[in-house]
Amino acid sequence: MTNDDLPIGRRVARWRVRRSMTQQMLADRLRRSKSWVDKVERGVRALDRYSVIQELADVLRVDPEVLLGQQRPTPAGPPDGVDDIRAVLARYDIPQAPAQTMEEVRRQVGYAWLSYQHAHYGQLVRVLPGLLDAVQGARSAEVLVQAYRITSSLLVKLGEVDLGWLAADRAMAAAGDDPVLAATAAISVAQALRASNRDRLALAATLTAANRILPPTTDPTPSRTGDHEVDGPLGDRTTCQRHDHRGEGRGWSEGERAVGGTLLVQAALAAAGCGDARRADELTDRAVGVATNLRGHDDTHRTSFGPIAVDLARVLSAAQRGDADEALHRHSTLVRREAFRRLPAEYRGAYLVDVARAYLQVGDLRGAARALVDADSVAPAEVRCRPLARTVIAEIARANPAPAGVARLATLVGLTR
């Protein structure tokens, strides 16, 4: 059995031994029990949280991908298998999937999230058709929403925006009347709409969802008795009924606040895409209020939301509205922060590709090349598989001479100058 074929718990054990650590020493550094470490290494306890795997990797002084056994060369070009995902989404019957326990299905969804967060898009494309069948068979709104969100996010990245929109819409339908699940699905809806240049629709969708998920003190709009006035995408004010069936006086969890904050970030980026800088700043400021009130959470809904996410949104918002100088000034300080390095590889890689575009706006080819090379080192698939990154590479590679790092990337993705 090769190292890549080993269960993750066995890899944790091997690296622990290599670092001359006992189970108790590892447990102490993780602030967990020795029993927890033992169960992880024996495979009794599943490791399906990105934050936990990253914490283990930090203590063991290895890349998280080493623990996942996924350090393989990343081929260039969109991964094969999108047609298989399309075929599953085109089906309206409920498949007779092999009988699986809910725990097994949840574990599959957890590993799919990990594959996405580590930008292993080729692997994810291969597993998604089977996963979508499995979650349909499980008939759980929660796992359905999560699986469709993963599918939507991946398809949008691979340039299949309309198909990604369909998957996001399926997530919204699966959420039903659950306000939390509907809010998480709205994140994917907004991403798909923004990717298809429908920023006004994305702004309306995110504001409506944010009103349902955030506490009244951090709602993005003022309220009236029984109703909420919602800032419309054109600056007008429309009325939307609050459909919160959870009862008055209920507390909002950390995870729900993180979803609400993510919706505000998406709304801010949509507003910037509409050219409404004032609205974008207001929404980002509100997202700051949500982020600063978080005491730290286990990212139940896979948002990666926090103060650093809001700061990165400010950079991208400034770049979208054409203020690349401000964007790059903010960027230069953010990437040196520990909080940035702790974000998932997918998040960092996608951000750096967007920053490369900002450097292009000011004519700084070397800065753009440096951002692309950094993105490739963090999440190769973000650069080698995404059509958007390919466009940026092509533009930089037209320079004479092309920066060395980008010349190499252009060769990898099959571009010629």
Automatic annotation (TrEMBL):
Entry-linked InterPro entries = Cro/C1-type_HTH, Lambda_DNA-bd_dom_sf
Citing just one GO molecular function, the answer is: DNA binding
Entry-linked PROSITE patterns: HTH_CROC1
In this chain the HTH cro/C1-type domain maps to 12-67
Q: Residues annotated as region Disordered?
A: 213-255
Query: Ranges of Basic and acidic residues compositional bias?
Result: 239-255
**Which Pfam families is this protein grouped with?**
HTH_31
What protein name applies here? HTH cro/C1-type domain-containing protein
